[in-house]
Amino acid sequence: MKTYDWIVIGAGFTGAALAYELVRTGFSVLLLEQDATLGNATRYSYGGLAFWSGTTPLTRQLCDEGIARYRILAQELDTDIEFRELDLLLTIANDSDPEVAAASYSHFAIPPKLLSVDQAWEMEPLLNKKAIAGALTVKHGHINPEKTAQAYIQAFLRLGGEMEITQVQNFTSNHASPTIKTTTKTYHSANVVVCAGGFSRQLLKASGIPIRLYFTHAEMIQTPPVEVQLRTLVMPAHLQRFQLEAESSRVDELWNEPGNEPAPPILDAGAIQFQDRSIRLGQISRVLTEPNAEIDGKISESWLRRSIGEILPVLSSLPGTWHHCLVAFSSDRLPVIGAIPEYHGIYIFSGFSNPLVIVPPLAQRFRNYLSGKEDEIICQLSPVRLQSPI
């Protein structure tokens, strides 16, 4: 019976990055993924790297480390991850005050520049000038998240890591080592780290482990490659998703039952074109406490197309397919990283709803921390901070 140093559950972006860093250090690592073809948040992510968006010393440092890491990552992994830096346009609704919108970003590491309607239209001619009062702009990083995750996985395998496609049902922990039960077999490891994104809470709950981690159902439309050219990444200046996350995580008990909807859904209308010329249109965010909840894709697609059409009219009628995935988040907009208290050998590395740019540096920092190196940032992200006060 083989026992690994680490079993990483989930081969999306976070799990792939962490598995690579762990095997690179010399640990024996098994990476488990339930789907042969990814259909998770990695697959449907915008791929944006908001390295300019740090608002605290902690997030500013991580964003700086993140963008520096991405600039060399393709060379390190020996794969094109389609990294680039492009113009982000944050559209300001025509019933909003542009100066107020700009002021709300003044505490960011790199405050976006305020543009008039005409200036915004010059940068992105597909915009509907009548729908906005102006826009903010800043340079923004971008990758193909699916290709980046695959690049991490291939590098992980080249270094001797092992990977299995199987669904984890639950795991147990004792003073010896965790045991992971899947649909096909049982695995043993000195340590287990859960990187299952929006499914992390459900998986841990099935194993009798409570965690204050949540998820939204994110919905978007993916087009095939098209002739239309989108010059910028377009998003609203006022993102409702963060408010939705804050409101829906106030009462943790609501998440212990599958039929609840702690807050109504929101739609942040935006679009990004990938290098293969396909476009991702999104996104709706819902907080349904059932991870496998059924959603009426036709109604959602109609809502998405109508909202996108107000800002970028030509995109609303493009051919495309509605998709939906889970996106993990915490109550304080920071990821949850570290040992789960009172459960020997069980760790969590999840909750990266904002932003994707900090995953690589935190995977490196967590690897070093697990190797015995002190790290104040990893300590600040521990699940202990989310426990209810006694």
Automatic annotation (TrEMBL):
Transmembrane segments: none annotated. InterPro entries: FAD-dep_OxRdtase, FAD/NAD-bd_sf. Keywords: Oxidoreductase. Pfam families: DAO (PF01266). Residues 5-361 form the FAD dependent oxidoreductase domain. One of its GO terms (cellular component) is cytoplasm. GO terms for molecular function: oxidoreductase activity. This is FAD dependent oxidoreductase. The lineage of its organism: Bacteria, Bacillati, Cyanobacteriota, Cyanophyceae, Nostocales.
